[in-house]
Amino acid sequence: MAKICIISPSLKMGGIERSLTTLANEFQSLGHEVYFITCLKDDHFYQLHEAIKIYEPNFKRTVSKLNKLLFYPRLIRYIRKKVNTIIPDRVLVFGDWFSPIALLALKGTKYPVYISDRTIPDYKFRFPIPQLKQWLYPKAAGFIAQTQRAKDFKLKQFGDKLPVEIIPNALPEFVNVNSDSVKREEKIIYVGRFAWEKDPEILIRAFAQVSMNHPTWTLEMAGTGPILEPIKDLVKEHSLEAHVCFLGKVSDVASLYQSASILVLPSVVEGFPNTLIEAMSFGLPTVCFSDIPFEDIITHSVDGWVVKERTPETLAEAIQLLIKKENFRTELGTQATYSVKRFEKQNIAQQVLAFMK
């Protein structure tokens, strides 16, 4: 069995953290020795197996210019020291920022480092991320692409200098799930951060149109983020306070997936949207835009609905189509439960382990 070191941004709520903790727990259950290093000290939203050793820095990242100047050199030294203490067989790190940081920290060591970006492959990062990637990624033992789009982009960028394998995210395990006792409500849900890349604004503008024609339907929005207050103001501007509910952080997201009738993910930027596969696993019809790499998850009008043109009007039309056609909604949800079986955590963990041999 292998000694595996995982480097994660943190253990707070987030897509990268969810993916890495799911893999860490599965590796541990398969008998591997797992160590978990976080780059940021924060609240623990995700739980790790008690046998997994967790390392967290005793310094924090803040908004001050001095802190930013000192934080990353300290982080590089911290990662190198901890990994040298663990002496792992393999190192796994996710994130467009933390992958190059980890490679820089472990430059010149013997440890094989496997990396993965977590946003759309052509996203325009600011200096120095693109420069660090160009320099350091060929030094990685391998790159995990979440989608075919991501693999094609990396092959164009690095050719045979970087081994690339497509491995999607794993479905997390939900506890205390009892779908038989929960009825679907006339409810649309949004699950994600309130940030520009998720584009919750377009959902509010679309729902304003939906609500005029279907006043009994509601929208529940789970999550927090920097544009939460402006989105609340937009709801007031459209007089939707009685129809839109903000839930904040939701630990029991399974109950949301079980009780809703439609999930909308309006994101502009996604590497591999966990929310989609989670909702689909509960038989929930999902709607997204074609901007994101949906091809590896959804087959349009078979197990989900994909909107090509990004406007409130086209999104509203898609939502209203699903509202009106209840049988079609049910068919989409049923097919979705079969489609996502390929993302079960046991399968994904084995794929990752096979790639890291």
Summarize the structure.
The protein is an alpha/beta fold and 357 residues long. The protein is built from 12 helices and 13 strands.
Order of helices and strands: EHEEHEHEHEHEEHEHEHEHEEHHH
- Judged by helices, strands and strand pairing, the structural class is alpha/beta
Rg is 21 Å
User: What is the strand tally?
Assistant: 13
Features:
alpha/beta; 13 strands; 357 residues; 12 helices; 16% strand; 7-stranded parallel beta sheet; 6-stranded parallel beta sheet
Give your account of this protein's structure:
By secondary structure, the protein is α/β, with parallel strands linked by helices. It contains twelve helices and 13 strands. It has helices at residues 15-29, 65-86, 98-105, 129-136, 148-158, 200-213, 228-237, 253-259, 274-281, 312-324, 326-339, 345-355; strands spanning 3-8, 33-38, 53-55, 90-94, 113-116, 142-145, 164-166, 187-191, 218-222, 244-248, 262-265, 286-289, 305-307. A seven-stranded parallel beta sheet has the order 3-2-1-4-5-6-7, with helices on both faces. Strand 4 (90-94), helix 3 and strand 5 form a beta-alpha-beta unit. The radius of gyration is 21 Å and the shape is globular. The mean pLDDT is 94.
